[in-house]
Amino acid sequence: MDTTLQSQAARGQDPAIRVRGLVKRYGETLALDYFDLDVRRGEIFGLLGPNGSGKTTAINCILALLTYDEGRIDVFGEPIGPTSYALKRRLGVVPQEVAVFDELTVEQNIDYFCSLYVADRRRRRKLVDDAVAFVGLGEYRRVRPGKLSGGLRRRLNIACGIAHRPELVFFDEPTVAVDPQSRNAILEGIRSLRDEGGTVVYTSHYMEEVEQVCDRILIMDHGRHLALGTADELKAMIDVGERISVESLDLPESAVEAVRGLPAVDEARYDGRELQVRCRRGERNIADVFAILEASGANIGHVTSRPPTLNDVFLEMTGTALRD
């Protein structure tokens, strides 16, 4: 069966992850507040939240690395606990911090982590070869990690986490501090895992990456589920409209004031070279702004209109930028 068809068929099955009413307390601190989550099979699922929102706690509970006070967690339709060894073999984790052994070569590192799940050496040899090829480290397989660039070490980190061919993989900030070439290779690899029928849970502070690779995105804060949907669905949930930029060297103050007075305009700033306008949703925003500027007689240069971004969604829903 074609791998894409396999992935599509998997999407109709039971969720890869189902979390209901999850509560986790640290003393008086409520880290997870009756948190719910559904991750479909065969999707890349983005989990976003500011620092301290409960993301890491939720993931560690799902992986059965943490106990919790109330709720239920099912993975592939089965409850997961500390001794769910067969279920855990179907999972993979790529942590934010590169976790490899500097005294072992690239190949030996991948083989070691794969051996934690696969005892048969012959089968493992094929899995290691596949993982090396998957992350593009063929020419470095006998090199130790200390000799690799940061981007190549990240790729090795991924190979160690996916060599045993897990059905569900957690990626925590996989592209932090990597070069553009390695970033593109990592993102393409994550898409390939999904297209081959795998399921990915992805956390990142890079909103453009989340929008690029994630099929659905959940925003959480204070241990609660705030919003869920595709990137376009999330953008449709907020009042923020486009941001309009207009180049002009002779814009009169009266025109700037008139733009500020438009019903859909939240803010307009002019620095003598460029007018920056932030709007709420509206069908005629750019036309209304342009009509005022044209009537003012000012010389107008480049005009751009940028639609709302995921960062706008995040800021409106949580009151903070993702990196705060």
From TrEMBL:
<dbReference type="InterPro" id="IPR003439">
    <property type="entry name" value="ABC_transporter-like_ATP-bd"/>
</dbReference>
<dbReference type="GO" id="GO:0005524">
    <property type="term" value="F:ATP binding"/>
</dbReference>
<dbReference type="InterPro" id="IPR025302">
    <property type="entry name" value="DrrA1/2-like_C"/>
</dbReference>
<keyword id="KW-0547">Nucleotide-binding</keyword>
<protein>
    <submittedName>
        <fullName>ABC transporter ATP-binding protein</fullName>
    </submittedName>
</protein>
<dbReference type="Pfam" id="PF13732">
    <property type="entry name" value="DrrA1-3_C"/>
</dbReference>
<dbReference type="InterPro" id="IPR003593">
    <property type="entry name" value="AAA+_ATPase"/>
</dbReference>
<keyword id="KW-0813">Transport</keyword>
<keyword id="KW-0067">ATP-binding</keyword>
<feature type="domain" description="ABC transporter">
    <location>
        <begin position="17"/>
        <end position="247"/>
    </location>
</feature>
<dbReference type="Pfam" id="PF00005">
    <property type="entry name" value="ABC_tran"/>
</dbReference>
